[in-house]
Specification:
Blueprint lengths: L1 E5 L2 E6 L4 E5 L3 H14 L4 E7 L5 H6 L3 E12 L12 E2 L5 H11 L7 H6 L4 E8 L2 E9 L7 E8 L3 H17 L4 E7 L3 H9 L3 E12 L4
Parallel strand pairs: 3-4, 9-10
Antiparallel strand pairs: 1-2, 2-3, 4-11, 5-10, 5-11, 6-7, 7-8, 8-9
Length: 220
């Protein structure tokens, strides 16, 4: 994504995808920026992401924004990590990416991080999988390239039961800690008890929230 400044506000733009992301924006800044986006980037999808800040609900409603994600921010330090005996989990090799891509794009067809984007940024991610024979039945996306080099993020865990979910999560955070990370964060869906229970099982703690809204840059 290209990072630009609009009226003093940091905005991330992916022009090839007609996509814009804005983080932790205040009501006054959103008012200033929205008119510019309508004029310069009509019909772009705009995602507004908030972490532990006051959310300008009224203006988001005025521009037609709809809730996209409502998550609990979970955080784990290396000191709090609880190792879990687990099902066999392995790190995905690049030569096996095609089978993962088919599974991922079917499981999350609307996720920004499609298999194509993940492959383009391969070095930024570590992907861990569980299999039934040669067939992938679950995976974790671990983001290791963050501004804070001592932090990693569990971006997604796809698993259909607690044991597999906990195993994938445990192996992923263990990898992060063994490779220089001190903190791992994980945004769990507020209504997904499987995500929250497995996070708690390996030592994560609830430390805040994350909410995202989606709007189209057009006049209402």
């Amino acid at each position: 994504m290209e990072r630009i400044d609009i009226n003093g506000v940091e905005v991330f733009i992916e022009e090839a995808e007609n996509y814009i992301q804005v983080n932790d924006i205040s009501e006054s800044d959103l008012t200033k920026v929205w008119g510019h986006l309508i004029k310069q980037y009509p019909e772009y999808e705009v995602n507004f992401c908030f972490r532990n800040v006051t959310i300008p609900i009224d203006i988001l409603s005025d521009i037609g924004a709809e809730i996209l994600d409502d998550c609990i921010k979970m955080q784990l330090t290396s000191n709090d990590y609880i190792f879990c005996e687990s099902y066999e989990v392995e790190q995905l090799k690049k030569e096996d990416f095609a089978s993962f891509a088919a599974f991922h794009d079917k499981a999350y067809p609307e996720m920004y991080w499609t298999s194509t984007r993940l492959l383009d940024k391969w070095d930024n991610w570590r992907i861990f999988v569980t299999k039934n024979g040669d067939k992938i039945i679950g995976y974790t996306l671990l983001l290791i390239a963050m501004k804070d080099k001592l932090m990693g993020e569990i971006f997604c865990v796809a698993a259909d039961n607690f044991a597999h979910h906990k195993a994938l999560l445990s192996v992923s955070v263990n990898y992060a800690f063994e490779n220089g990370k001190n903190i791992v964060i994980y945004m769990t869906d507020r209504d997904n008890t499987l995500e929250q229970d497995s996070a708690l099982a390996v030592g994560f703690k609830n430390v805040g929230f994350y909410k995202a809204f989606r709007a189209i840059a057009q006049q209402k």
